[in-house]
Amino acid sequence: MAPKKVRTASRNPCLIPGIGKFSRSKMYHKRGIWAIKAKHGGSFPKHDPKPAPAATAAVKPTKFYPADDVKMPIPNRRKPKPTKLRASITPGTVLILLAGRFMGKRVVFLKQLPSGLLLVTGPFKVNGVPLRRVNQAYVIATSTKVDISGVNTDKFDDKYFTKEKKKKTIKGEGEFFENEKEETKALPQDKKDDQKYVDTPLIKAIEAVQDLKAYLGARFSLRSGMKPHELVF
Amino acid sequence: MPFKRYVEIGRVALVNYGKEYGRLVVIVDVIDQNRALVDAPDMVRGQMNFKRLSLTDIKIDIPRVPKKKTLIDAMEAADVKNKWENSSWGRKLIVQKRRAALNDFDRFKVMLAKIKRGGAIRQELAKLKKASSA
């Protein structure tokens, strides 16, 4: 037997909003309540009534009441969603960075992080851009795509990129200047390993396409005669 | 310097303004001093101001206001499409369209190809210079 389609429209056509064509008794008949009752021996099938919740222990009235009725603010249940990704940006797309230290560089898009920022890598060996977060607004998406299936980006999220909190030590005046020299830290080895782990399959996919490596190594710039609003990226 | 391209029934023209920009049409009738009735195989026949038309060298043989089928057959017989695509004007337009549709990656590849071509030309030139000076 073909599966029964669930009826979605009401059986009572609307004449004017709020006024249906059929009366209550006609609707009772149309809905077949009489047939359901007959099938279940005279009464409409009901769920068993839920057991009443056990009476909670009597709450002692508090001794202190505030003088004025203070309005409690409604708790904010809103959970922000990550920014809507432009349709042109899919994993493996080559993006052109428009601002910042790596302005003009062509990089490979890996995935969108829960904060909405885009996770991007050079690859590092090709153009010096490491694993980095980038805002969608400062990016042009080209239509060139790289095969990213060999790359596993599961371990990267926003917490990976946050700065480590420096332990505040109370310093004497003379020690201020000495300590500033120690600020610049070398990049920890596990971050370098992560970079290599992401980049090796990526570089293999890049070298498979002709000129793509040179393309990613070159910076984008506008020349005379190039009109950005007419360019196809 | 007399005129070489005349407005006449059967003259193929290029639309240079408006909604039908870039389309090849055939002048099928003249309405008055400023307007013509134009038609193309994939277009509804309509009027157009002469100012919107750029006349081409191509002319086909049709009676005044032909049926669509007659028009299409006449265009096939005169081979308008190929004549247009092989003419220098037609080829320029095709190149312009291709260049406008280039991807960022394609533009990069074109740049590399131009550099390579230039290098090859310069090498040959150097050889010839050497040969002529020796």
Topology at a glance:
The complex is a heterodimer of chains A (233) and B (134).
Chain A: E1 14-16, E2 19-20, H1 24-31, H2 33-39, E3 93-97, E4 106-112, E5 118-121, H3 124-127, E6 132-134, E7 139-145, H4 158-161, H5 173-180, H6 189-208, H7 212-217
Antiparallel strand pairs in A: 1-2, 3-4, 3-7, 4-5, 5-6
Chain B: E1 11-15, E2 24-30, E3 35-39, E4 46-49, E5 53-59, H1 68-78, H2 80-86, H3 88-100, H4 104-133
Antiparallel strand pairs in B: 1-2, 1-5, 2-3, 3-4
Question: What can be said about this structure in brief?
Answer:
The complex is a heterodimer of chains A (233) and B (134). Chain A is an alpha+beta fold and 233 residues long. Helix content of chain A is 24%, strand content 13%.
Report on the architecture of this protein.
- The complex is a heterodimer of chains A (233) and B (134).
- Chain A is an alpha+beta fold and 233 residues long.
- Chain A contains 7 helices and 7 strands.
- Chain A has helices spanning 24-31, 33-39, 124-127, 158-161, 173-180, 189-208, 212-217; strands spanning 14-16, 19-20, 93-97, 106-112, 118-121, 132-134, 139-145.
- The longest helix of chain B is centred in the last third of the chain and has 30 residues, at 104-133.
- Chain B is elongated.
- Chain B is an alpha+beta fold.
- Chain B has a 5-stranded antiparallel sheet with strand order 4-3-2-1-5, covered by helices on one side.
- Chain B is built from 4 helices and 5 strands; from the N terminus they run E-E-E-E-E-H-H-H-H.
- The chains are: A alpha+beta (233), B alpha+beta (134).
Sheet/helix structural class of chain A: alpha+beta
Main beta-sheet strand count, sense and barrel state of chain A: 5 strands, antiparallel
Q: What spatial form of chain A do the alpha-carbon principal axes imply?
A: extended
Which pair of chains has the greatest number of interface residues, and how are they split between the two chains?
A-B, 16 and 9 residues
Q: What is the strand arrangement across the widest sheet of chain B?
A: 4-3-2-1-5
The sequence of SSEs of chain A as H and E is EEHHEEEHEEHHHH
Structural class determined from secondary elements of chain B: alpha+beta
Residue share in helix of chain B? 40-55%
